[in-house]
Amino acid sequence: MSSDNNTSAFKTIKNESELNLWKKNNLNSAQEDARYSDLSLLSSNESRNTYSAYDKKFNRSVTLIEALPDTQNEIDFINEILFSSSFDHPSIIKLLDFGVWKENTPYYTIQQGDFQPLNEYIDKTDDSEIKKLTLFSKVCDALSYAHSRQITHQKLDLENILLGPNDELLLEGWKMGENIDTKSCDDLANDDENIDQEANEKTSQDEESNKDESSKDEESKADEPSSTDSSLDIKPDLAALGLILKKLYTKTPEDDLPETISDVISQSASTEADQAYQSVDELKSDMDNFIQTRMAPKKRLGLFRAAISFYYEYENFCFPFMLLVVGLVGYSSYSYKKLYEAKIVLDKSSAETKAENKHLNKVLKYQIKANDKYLLKELKTAKALMAFPHYSKSPKAATQQALEIYLSQKDLKKYHKEMFMILLIQQDFKAIFKHKIKVPGGLMRLAKMSSNKAKDENGILKNEKDFVNILHTANNLPFERQEFKEQYIERAILYKNEIEQETEISPMVLKQLIRVWNPDWLLKDFYFNAKHKSLRLKGASLTNLVVDSPNSMGQPFLNFLKFNNLDMRQAGIESLDQLDGQIIKRLDIRETAIKDFPIHENALKVETLVITPGQFTQGALKQVPSTVNVIQKKQ
């Protein structure tokens, strides 16, 4: 659903009923869902996932952002879509497309670029003061523009300010404030025109009545509309600008700030009306004046003023250097005139002791920082261990290493969700209760129902029916648990296969695996005849036998089962690419949307192919390998 279809009018989403209505009105079709391919996860935080993707409709690479499943988060995400689609500013993201796609998830796309959050830029670079202040000025411009449209950001921080390779700057992550005016941009423009018209009429009347010029100026100024509604709460945005300015200037708390910068930060956070800034433009004006003083050419200044300017520009260097020079001069003079050799040696020893203490303090700070980085790296390692394709190399080793990392953390409550997933995969149900793990009740039922079931010597449920019951119960969880199902079921199957040293799975387990990726598909539409090794799959809701997802290996599910004959009549499968690698004696695809036979290197091998007369065009029939016996047969 392209953003080109939007008008300037928008209505913000305020509650769950409006959220559901918006989702219904913007739900993608199956064809629109298939528009994006080659998804690769770039980043993830508590509110959204960011992917690189390929837009097949316009043949271009894009960045796709989707909301994580949480009602308030999705409301904020959709309001960001509504706000952004009404903006026209170079430093505010421009939407290419938005809508609701797979798993009822809101998303939008933007032009792909090599952008990085501003906090990463600050950590990695040490650019000049002028460049950093110029970037800050761009943030102010974008925020001022939004305020003029009666919109505040409310969540402004370094993570949702993105910087491109050529210093392009974009703001994202908008959240609706309580005082936001939800009128359309056209309405606001009409209001301005009406106010201007009233002002003109008033001026004309004043001229006719021969009022003096000063009286007309005062009335015109009184009638002029302000750029920002006085009811708009811009204090959070101003406070956020102050914090961003401080972080641009200081990498450590010990860094000194220029007096002007310190004053700007204080005024941006002030709660006193007579001391606080009344608008972003007022703050930016002070910063522009400060930048001008920093950029003044040295050749236009006298020697003394040039020295003062140089000192302020390199204050962090000049002040310690001046102290060092004064200290050396004083020390030398005192040494030559007053001190004996023993006194000099004592002073030198004292200086060395101070230097050693300073060095030890630096080492201690470095060790603390290194320890924090190590813990963060360990958590990233644990997350990577549970992701495909690394997980598939050894599910047993990966889950155990990840579990040990989480158990080594001080606050285990932060990682209950991850630990529950791992222990459920390992079928260690009693450990879930031992560690007092807390998860929503519906999920805890999975552990309770199997905690007393018999296990074999490897710690796996002895009776496969018990394992199938867990998968079946997981598949029956409400739709809002779909992400959990996708993360759990295929991982649990692969873990069990490695422990039991198996490469195949039973038909009952395969049914549950297929269903998790086809939630509306009925299990009764799966039938397997073990004696004849014949498999029957039907149902229009059956559309996925292989998926491209971070929660799947990306291999056809039917590779887990050996069979000779496959009947797919009335199935919703649209391509035989979903059977890559299969060797089938007889394949019946009548009453399906399949129109051709794949000929790539990894395509399936078939002895007999049954199709409906006219299902394949003559050109498609010619592409079928000569080794395949094609039977065109009516139902």
UniProtKB/TrEMBL annotation:
<dbReference type="Pfam" id="PF00069">
    <property type="entry name" value="Pkinase"/>
</dbReference>
<dbReference type="GO" id="GO:0005524">
    <property type="term" value="F:ATP binding"/>
</dbReference>
<dbReference type="GO" id="GO:0004674">
    <property type="term" value="F:protein serine/threonine kinase activity"/>
</dbReference>
<protein>
    <submittedName>
        <fullName>Serine/threonine-protein kinase</fullName>
    </submittedName>
</protein>
<feature type="compositionally biased region" description="Basic and acidic residues">
    <location>
        <begin position="211"/>
        <end position="224"/>
    </location>
</feature>
<keyword id="KW-0418">Kinase</keyword>
<keyword id="KW-0067">ATP-binding</keyword>
<feature type="region of interest" description="Disordered">
    <location>
        <begin position="198"/>
        <end position="233"/>
    </location>
</feature>
<keyword id="KW-0808">Transferase</keyword>
<dbReference type="GO" id="GO:0000922">
    <property type="term" value="C:spindle pole"/>
</dbReference>
<dbReference type="InterPro" id="IPR011009">
    <property type="entry name" value="Kinase-like_dom_sf"/>
</dbReference>
<feature type="domain" description="Protein kinase">
    <location>
        <begin position="36"/>
        <end position="322"/>
    </location>
</feature>
<dbReference type="InterPro" id="IPR000719">
    <property type="entry name" value="Prot_kinase_dom"/>
</dbReference>
<dbReference type="GO" id="GO:0005813">
    <property type="term" value="C:centrosome"/>
</dbReference>
<keyword id="KW-0547">Nucleotide-binding</keyword>
